[in-house]
Structure formats: structure tokens, C-alpha cells
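Hey, weird one. I pasted the 6-phospho-beta-glucosidase sequence into the form twice and got a warning about non-standard characters only the second time. First submission, copied straight from the form history:
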Amino acid sequence: MGLRKDFLWGGATAANQCEGGYNKGGRGLANVDVVPIGEDRFPIIAGKQKMFDFDDEHFYPAKEAIDMYDHYKEDIALFGEMGFKTYRLSIAWSRIFPMGDEAEPNEEGLQFYEDLFKECHKYGIEPLVTITHFDCPMHLIEKYGAWRSREMIGFYENLCNVIFRRYKGLVKYWLTFNEINMILHAPFMGAGLYFEEGENEEQAKYQAAHHELVASAIATRIAHEVDPENQVGCMLAAGHYYPYSCKPEDVFKAQEADRENYFFIDVQSRGEYPAYALKKLEREGVTIQMEDGDLELLKENTVDFISFSYYSSRVVSTDPKVNETTSGNIFASVKNPYLEVSEWGWQIDPLGLRTTMNSLYDRYQKPLFIVENGLGAIDEPDENGYVADDYRIDYLAAHLQAMKDAVELDGVDLMGYTSWGCIDLVSAGTGEMKKRYGFIYVDRDNEGNGTLARSKKKSFDWYKKVIASNGEDLSV
């Protein structure tokens, strides 16, 4: 038994990392725009350093990114040439509601995505749309405090009502929040949370998460009401935790670390707060304010499938002497001595993908969808923009084999696979352009220089062959 005949092969991007056009088409300012490249980036995305607008001292890569706003027809044509069955993209919330709290949407923004979705269908590509990929209009952050405010649920519901109705028949696969667990690790980037001095940060994060979970359930309900064909998924930044040793304390700590990430998906998939999470919040003195009907809403509107990103596995240890950690990733982890690492210090673990898939499928018994996976690397193009990226092909081939093993040998139900950054884009973690993931090279550097010309890498033709064979041919 191979992959499904209707397996959804494709690639993934996020509006804030590729679209650009931050001041075009009536779009408003969002949290993702005002995050600069450089040493201030991490304190800002962590909600520790305030930056609510642009200044002259920093470079903001998301303002233009790779200008897909003006290049999407060319880019989608290239995706079509590769044979994509699906393209995962996100909607910029502030393109539809520039302030976030308007009664009426911005028609120019709605039309942009309608045109983009129609362009996808021209090539037989099903859009897979992330409603919120870290975006939050800055007005909602400044006026309401972002997702710590209950009022955000209504603004998100407005957005969902508008897009589900407008794009009925054009989009049937939806994700509510990208990497919802990122709220714990990068709260300003993930949910617009900036912390005031003395604020109880854990309280703010989990209260905001509750509002997002309720909003996600409402989105799921509306999607199913508007079009019974709609399928709605949640989205997790995944990666199984290994204990550093077989010491029982290490094993238990790994289970706890996994649960921290599963918590949100437990709610979205099973429909209730898990007992371990309630106990953890109680121990930490976190009290989530809920309204009547919240728990019923969560219970009655669970997701149809589980989507996730996977780049690497992680390791935990209870031994204070074992403290050498990985670099480069928002999810820092103890180093695994058995694994090689990427140029950014991310541990490369194809078998970890199979382990993660089995863990998720055992836990939820719902179809899975790998919506991000890939290798960030420095590419050196020749004079024609061609990159011989065998290292990327090797990485992807090994992960695709592990993915197939999970399906064919373990019986995991998998809907599809979209590699991350199918076209080079701005890194969410570091803001760099030189950390490239794509099958398509974009001539732009970390400082914003370059022609934005697109060119095919060696991996372009390789992935085209993989898709054409439905994953049977992974050879270089």
C-alpha cells in the first residue's frame, strides 16, 4: 500500500514571509511587519522589547519580502510546472481588515486572494489556507492588547465569516492558527503579546491561548456551516522529545515536554482541556477566565485533521551537566550526539518524523497533514541563478522515505505533504533571506538587495519527479 491516490503534494509559504506589499492594496500594519532582522529580533518576537512601528535604525524584511504580492502569477506557474496538487499559503489579516475591528472588509484585499486562488485552480492546485499565520493587526495590539483580550474572538469570527463565504468553492482546506503552541515560545510573533513590566506572563499566554482555542472552534463551526465540503485542521510545531538517557527522570521530563506542545492540539482535536494541563495551570497559579458555553463550543467543534511542521526532533535532560543546546531554532533543545545538524544548528532526524507521525496518529486517530518540512541552507547560485542543492534533495528524500514508512509500514493516515518555503522566503526565526528552503531561488539578500528574479534549483526537477511518481521515485 503506497500513499493515497489523491495525496496532496505541494509546498508552503506564509504571507508575512513572502508577500510583501505591506502598504499596497489598502493593507494595514501587523505585528509581523515590525519585527526587524538583527540582534533585537528575538527580544521583540518574545514580547520582551517593544516595537510597534518602524524606525530608522532597523531593516524590516517582511515589508517587501520576495514581493509575491506582485509576482504571484509567475510563482504559481512554477508551482504548477512542478505538479503541485496543493499550495499552502496564509491570508494577511490586515489585508482583509486593515485595523482588525472594522465592520466591513477591504474589498481590494479580498479580491487579491480571490485572484490568487483562481490562479491556483488554473493549474489544478487546491489552496490550503492558513487563516492566521502569526498575523495580528497592530491596531488590535495597541487598542485591545491582542489575544489577551476576549474581544479578539469576535474580530477573528468576523474575518472567518467573510473569507469562508467569499471563497466558498475556491478553498476547501483550512487551518485556523499556525503553530498555535508558538504562543509559549515567541508570544509577540505568535499572538501579538507584548508584556508590561510585572505582568504575569504565563497567565497572559494561557489566557490568550484560550481565546485562540475558542476562536478556532468558532472558525471550525462556521466553515462547516458555510460549506459541508470544508475541512478544517489545527496546526502544531511538532518534533518528538527524546530523553537524553534512560534515567526515569529524563523519560518523564520528555513526556512533560511533549505534553506542553500537545496541550493545544488536545483541545482542538479532542474537544476538552486535558487533565495534565489543568493540573499544571493549577500548580502555576494560572486561572483561565472562561465564559459560559466555551467548553461546549470546544467539545462540539473539533478539527477534521491534524497538520504540523516538522524540522527536527528534540532532547531533554534533568542532568545540569548536560547543558549543550542546539542553536538557531526558537525551540532550543539539548544536543543529540547521534545526529548531524544543519548550518543553523537544527538537528537532522528523518526517523524522528516517523516517530512524531506515529505519536500524533496514536494520540488523535485523525488524518495527519505534514504542512512544513525542509532544510534551511546557504545556497550558492551560478551566473544563471542555478543552485546544485544536492544537500536539500538528500534531506527531503530521507524525510519522505520516513514519511512513507509511517504510512506503509505503520498504517498512519496521511493526507498530504507541503515542503516549507517551496520558494525562497524570509526566515521567521532569524529574518534572514540567506537561510533558504526553496526549490526556486529568489535573488534577494539579507539587506534587501537583489533583482527578485526567480530561478529553478536542482531540487525543482527532483521534486517534480517525486510528485509525478506519487512518491515512488525519490532517487536523485
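That's the output from the first submission. The warning seems to come from a hidden character in my clipboard, not from the data itself. The first helix runs from residue 15 to 18.
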